[in-house]
Design brief:
The complex is a heterodimer of chains A (262) and B (353). By secondary structure, chain A is an alpha+beta fold. Helices cover 15% and strands 37% of the residues of chain A. Chain B has twelve helices and four strands; from the N terminus they run ββααααααααβαβααα. Classes of the chains: A alpha+beta (262), B mainly alpha (353).
Chain lengths: 262, 353
């Protein structure tokens, strides 16, 4: 075998060793994981269900109404995380905050997020009309969220329920049920920028999102609980809740890796 | 995370359709023949949840049906599951405020109906059983129900002339254990499907409802009557627990017994309203004799207590007039499924005494 041929054989052997290694690298999924963590507060106070001691309008001391949050469940859908890279999910996520014994948070885990740069998260609060179809969600697990056809059909976007004490000292109840009425739809899109980060291959980042429950009733519109408490057929109230929800109910915190500690 | 449900598939040998159940296969089973899988498909219903630890089979259902109606499982051979869960009353103990066991000892709660239980999330008024198998384990040894230790029940079944062969056909073993007994009963109970009421047929365009029924339906499914929150369309139960303002304080603490959580005091699971006209008296303690009484309770607003459900209009009531109440009751009657209570596949296999 000539020297030239021996050289070709050596190159071929080396190439045979190298190419599979190279293929292995290129086959590694270029993905990481993002956990979106929803937490809750009531103004400056931590959230605890069933506590009848939150001021409804703390900016209005003469008001004096206190309330509790006994039930809080809602849907998040059409979640998008974008920046230099992008990730989209059309899954519908049920958030049941009060049906747990502790750790009042909801974690949405996405394990196949393209590696890359991210700086913004967007989601639909509730269900858009395309997804808000009767029977679309797994039954019976979501039957408690059914919104009757006679009132607009589909599912509640949110059920927030509890008690409140009026100026006379009487304990009453409220039912902040949002959804699609016979006149219109009241889902909305939330867009939250956050401190940008680069998601590495095989790495995890956490995006914290906080819901300030008080904002539903204060900003920009002051909202008083009605008597009787039902609002499902009340378009004016649905619109107010929608506008408040869009405004400042949700805030994104600084994304952190899971092993991050202060 | 929620995904759209997929249709149940599989090598089903028996398919149940409405109205009634059509048993495609019959006859005896040759020894060594594997049990025949059964899939139940109900028009308009979501797929029946799969039970991989206890799949439905023709032989299992047959065994369960027999065990359900056989008083061999009670201490004095007088009472079966079917004694309190009678098919003609939508599998309740008609007319009795609370259940009564073999020693004439009264229980504390009304007999729950067994309707579409395959889809139930937790069983009993307080939800203490996670599935039908766990539920069926309770009444046999309960001293105020059937009052028979499971060891003795197993001994009786094992000594029986027919049961060991039926267990063999259903489960591949002739050992009549408590575990397999409740599995068989649970299989039978999963076949107790009701989805063919006048309301269902109206939804399918097969008949017209009367004006009172239609008016009642509108009241039911809007916030005027506000029935739908606890009894949504479909299974007519939200599968959740509510303090419905029956009392200011509670001797029977209900769901709190299970969770230990004070906020669950006096909460009981919303029953299905399907076939409710057959299941009087009403509420967990049978305090209301008629559907009209039950609707009037909600219309009056109930009694306040620290954890009364926000859906209950304490102090104000619903503001329904007497005709509204009658219309809602008319709609509730439209949820009656006569083909369910007369289905021969659900009846006792034993000759009437």
């Amino acid at each position: 075998m000539s020297r030239h041929i021996r050289t070709l054989v050596l190159v071929a052997v080396l190439a045979g060793l190298i190419v599979p290694l190279g293929c292995g690298d290129s086959n590694t999924p270029q993905i990481g994981r993002i956990d979106v963590i929803f937490t809750y507060k009531v103004g400056a106070a931590p959230f605890f269900p069933e506590s009848l001691n939150y001021f409804l309008h703390p900016e209005d001391p003469s008001d004096g109404v206190v309330f509790s949050i006994d039930t809080l469940k809602y849907y998040v859908s059409r979640l998008r995380i974008t920046g230099g890279s992008s990730f989209a999910s059309d899954l519908i996520h049920r958030m049941d905050v009060t049906n747990q014994s502790s750790a009042y948070e909801n974690v949405l885990s996405f394990t196949s997020v393209p590696a890359g740069n991210y700086k913004e998260i967007t989601f639909t609060f509730g269900l858009d009309d395309e997804q808000n179809v009767a029977g679309a969600l797994l039954s019976p697990d979501n039957d408690d969220m059914i919104w009757p056809e006679q009132m607009g059909d589909g599912y509640h976007y949110m059920k927030m329920e509890g008690r409140w004490i009026d100026a006379a000292g009487d304990t009453l109840t409220y039912l902040t049920h949002t959804g699609r009425t016979l006149q219109g739809s009241y889902f909305f899109t939330v867009t939250l920028p956050f401190a940008q980060f680069d998601l590495g291959v095989g790495k995890t980042m956490r995006i914290p999102i906080n819901m300030d429950i008080l904002q539903w009733y204060n900003n920009p519109n002051k909202y008083d609980f009605p008597t009787p408490p039902a609002i499902m057929g009340d378009d004016a109230r649905q619109a107010v809740i929608q506008e408040n929800g869009k405004n400042a109910v949700f805030i994104a915190g600084t994304p952190i890796p899971p092993d991050f500690e202060n | 995370m929620i995904r759209n449900p997929s249709r149940a598939t599989g090598p089903a040998l028996i398919i149940a359709l409405l109205p009634g159940l059509f048993w495609a296969c019959g006859g005896s089973t040759e020894p060594g023949t594997p049990p025949e899988p059964v899939t139940i498909v109900v028009p308009g219903f979501p797929p029946m949840p799969e039970t991989p630890d206890n799949p439905l089979t023709r032989q299992g259902i047959e065994l369960g049906r027999r065990l359900f109606y056989d008083p061999i499982l009670s201490g004095d051979h007088t009472q079966s599951c079917g004694s309190c869960h009678a098919p003609e009353f939508a599998f309740t103990d008609h007319g009795k405020r609370v259940s009564v066991g073999i020693d004439d000892i009264e229980g504390t709660r009304s007999t729950p109906a067994i309707i579409n239980a395959a889809w139930s999330v937790d069983l009993f008024w307080d939800g203490r059983a996670e599935d039908l198998e766990e539920q069926a384990m309770g009444p046999v040894p309960n001293p105020i129900e059937m009052h028979l230790e499971w060891e003795e029940a197993e001994r009786r079944l094992q000594a029986h002339a027919e049961y060991p062969a039926m267990f063999q056909a259903a489960f591949g073993t002739d050992k009549a254990t408590a575990g397999l007994t409740v599995k068989a009963i649970a299989q039978f109970e999963r076949t107790l499907v009701s989805g063919n009421s006048r309301y269902d047929r109206w939804k399918r365009g097969l008949l017209e409802l009367g004006s009172s029924e239609l008016r009642g339906m509108t009241l039911f499914f809007t916030e005027r009557g506000d029935c739908f929150h606890c009894h949504p369309d479909g299974f007519f139960t939200d599968q959740l627990y509510h303090n419905t303002g029956l009392d200011a304080s509670f001797e029977d603490i209900g769901r709190e017994e299970v969770t230990g959580h004070a906020f669950d005091r006096g909460k009981f699971k919303s029953p299905t309203l399907r076939n409710i006209a057959f299941t009087a008296p009403y509420m967990h303690d049978g305090r209301f004799d008629t559907l009209e009484d039950a609707v009037k309770h909600y219309n009056n607003g109930g009694v306040g207590s620290p954890n009364v459900d926000p859906l209950i209009r304490v102090g104000t009531g619903l503001g329904l007039d007497p005709q509204d109440v009658l219309d809602i009751v008319a709609f509730l009657h439209a949820l009656s499924d006569s083909s369910f209570i007369t289905n021969p596949d659900f009846a006792s296999p034993f000759p009437a005494p």
